Amino acid sequence: MQPQPRHCLALASLCVLSTLILCVTVLTLPHSHTGPWPWEHTNTALVASLALLVVATLALLIKRQQELLRAFERNQILAHEVAFQEHAHETLAARTSDLEIEVARRTEALQEQATRMLKLYQMAYDFVGNVSHEFRTPLTVIKEYVAALEEAVEGADIDPDVQRFFAVIHGRVDDLSLMVDDLIDVTRLESDILRVSRRPCRVEDIVTRAQEMVLAKARKSQITLEFMADPELPDVYCDPEKIGRVIINLVTNAVKFSPPESAIRVWALHDQGDGLVRIGVTDHGPGIPRESRTAIFERFKQVTQENAPSTKGFGLGLHIAKELVGLNFGDINVHSSIGVGSVFSFTVPTWNPSSFLQHYLRHIGYFRQACALVSLVRVEATGGSREGGDELGAFLEDRLRRTDLAFRTGLADWLIMVPMGQAQGLPDLLQRLRDEHEQANHVRPLNPLLPIHLEVLGTWTTADASPDLETAFLAALAHDGDTSPPAPATAASDRLDTRA
């Protein structure tokens, strides 16, 4: 056992004091003139000096002793703290180990639960898809038989109740058909297999086609439809079938909530400043509460109000409309006043290649968050013809993702715009196109697709929106030598390829 610092200091002080006393005693003894100290008259001064030296030495030793004691106490405190920290570390390590075991156990349980939920979701998803497709056949048969019965009794004097029964059957079959269409569309949207064919279109043509689909339903509800689409509106770049479906869903929704003898107005306006055409539907229904104006665009959401008429459906119409507008690089919103009515409107980009490019770059985040790069790829076919170019366009439409765009620049030449999260995605996409092109020709030996050559024109960052990208885009659109940008053909399918 080592001696304590307090004992060491006491022993050292005792030794120093004994030595000094011994020296003083020796010096003060009587000496002869030949002794060690011949100057007896200085003995008093020497004794006093030695006494002072002893006192100073003792004071210094005491001070050093106190400092050493304080240091020793601090060292003991630190030792206790170190021991406490080591104990706490051991306790924390033990708890961490227990937590890791618990986290691993719960993670495994959650994974099992997620697997079960995914399996149940897939079963429900497949069930809805299968049932939706199976419903179409009997609904079509019912509708055709009712139409045949109406033709058979046309001109005959039949009971008014029978006529009313025919009208009710027609109305309910139409309602069921819309529900089935909604379920199928939701299934395709969530599966990422809904084909999107974007191209320059006339707004008037889209509105006219939608008008034919909803007029009969409005008449049955005793509602007047007013269509106001300026023929001078610029062409828009979209999938006309999908935008027409949006108009149909919005009008159908307005008819559900509008009282008889009211009017619904479908309109379209152009704002030259933002390069967009806004299409809207105005009704005179009960209005939508402010807190519900976001929820109505969610799946299976319907607004229930005391004064609102009862509605039929799954609450998918507005959700599908929002998704279809997003697929065409637009936005949808609603303005409503309780007791006055609602205005649903959405935007579609105009077909001006320069402004459309900027609009497209701003909206690709709707489909994928990490689109940092965008590339231009030229697809050139050997021995091109119009028919061969159409087949090649259909091939590209089925293979590309919904964020990709395909523009026709010649008889059988195409320009593809490909946004990506990282540079490696482009070679993967091009290789996949080559492989699937070869596989497609294996199954159609008598009518193969035209041989193609893929050329990367460049890659740019989406954040910069570089003028070089716009220049290259416009030049590539005019690749066939025409001074005006060629009309894009059908755009890419929205099937998501995880490898690209």
How would you describe the overall organization of this protein?
With 500 residues, this protein is α+β, with helices and mostly antiparallel strands. Among the domains are: 199-349, 2-Layer Sandwich (Heat Shock Protein 90); 369-477, Alpha-Beta Plaits (2-Layer Sandwich). The chain is built from ten helices and eleven strands. The protein has a five-stranded mixed beta sheet with strand order 2-4-5-7-6. A hairpin with a 4-residue loop joins β4 and β5. The longest helix has 110 residues, at 43-152.
Class of one domain in CATH? Answer: Alpha Beta
CATH superfamily of one domain: Histidine kinase-like ATPase, C-terminal domain
* Radius of gyration, taken over Cα atoms and rounded to an integer in Å: 44 Å
How would you classify the helix and strand content by structural class?
A: alpha+beta
Largest sheet report: 5 strands, mixed
Supply the CATH architecture of one domain: 2-Layer Sandwich
N-to-C span: 74 Å
Which blocks of ≥5 consecutive residues have pLDDT under 50? 481-500
Tell me the CATH topology of one domain: Heat Shock Protein 90
- Strand arrangement, largest sheet? 2-4-5-7-6
Strand content: 5-15%
Number of helices: 10
**Mean pLDDT, nearest integer?**
78
**SSE succession:** HHHEHEEHEEHEEHEHEEHEH
The tally of beta strands, per DSSP, is 11
Percent of residues in helices comes to: 40-55%
Name the shape in a single word.
Answer: elongated
